Amino acid sequence: MPSLKDKYKNEVIPTLKDEFSFRNVMEVPRVSKVVVNIGMGEALDNAKALDAAVNDLQLVTGQKAMVTKAKKDISNFKLRAGKPIGVKVTLRGERMWSFLDRLMNVALPRVRDFRGIPSKGFDGRGNYTLGLHEQLVFPEIEYDKIDKLRGMEITVVTTARNDEHGRRLLALLGMPFQQRGKI
Q1: In the chain, which residues have pLDDT < 50?
Q2: Which residues of 53-71 are buried (b: 16+ CB within 10 A; e: fewer)?
C-alpha cells in the first residue's frame, strides 16, 4: 500500500492543480506540520498528571513532548505565569505523514458512533483543528496503563490560502469529513 506522502505526490497534486487551475506545482497547497496538544488545568495541582500526558503523547506521536507554560497570571484560575499547563508535539516530515495516516485510517474509525469529522474546524486560512475526547482511539495507548481519560487537539497546518483549498486537500488525502445533510 502506498504511503500518504506518495498518494499526495501522485494523486492529490495533479487533482488539485486541475481543479483550482494552479499554474505551477508550487502553488498547490501542502501539509506543512501537525501540532498535537493536550491542555491540562489539572497540572497545577497534580504534577504526575503532566508526566502521564507526556508519556501518552510520546506513544501516540513517536516524538518527545514539550511542556507548555502559562504566559500570564490569571487569578480566577489560580494560574501564575511560568506554571506548566499542557504538553504539545509539533510533527514535520515523515513522522507527520505517518501520524496523519494513522489518524485517518486507524484512530478516527475507532471513535464510537463515528460518522465523520465536522468540517467546521477551519480557521479561514486553510488550517484545520480537530478535538478528540479521549486518547484511547490510538491503538498505542493501552486502557489498563492510563491514569485518566484526556482529550487532545490536533491542528493540521497547510499552505492553502483559504478554507476551500485546505478542505479539498485534506479530503483528497482521505480525511473523513461528514457528508452535509446526513445525520
Answers
A1: 181-183
A2: bbbbbebbbebebeebebe
Domain borders along the chain are 4-24+31-40+89-173
Is the CB of residue 169 less than 8 Å from the CB of residue 32?
no
pLDDT tens sequence across 49-77: 788 888 888 888 889 988 888 788 877 77
CATH classification number, 4-24+31-40+89-173, choose in 3.80.10.10, 3.40.50.1820, 3.30.1440.10, 3.40.640.10 = 3.30.1440.10
The string over 23-37, giving b where at least 16 C-beta atoms fall within 10 Å of a residue's C-beta and e elsewhere, is eeeeebbebeebbbb
Look at residue 43 in the predicted model and tell me its pLDDT. 62
Contacts 24+ apart (CB under 8 A), 62-68: 62/95, 62/98, 62/99, 63/89, 63/91, 63/95, 64/89, 65/89, 66/90, 68/37
Is residue 50 within 8 A of residue 67, CB to CB? The reply is yes
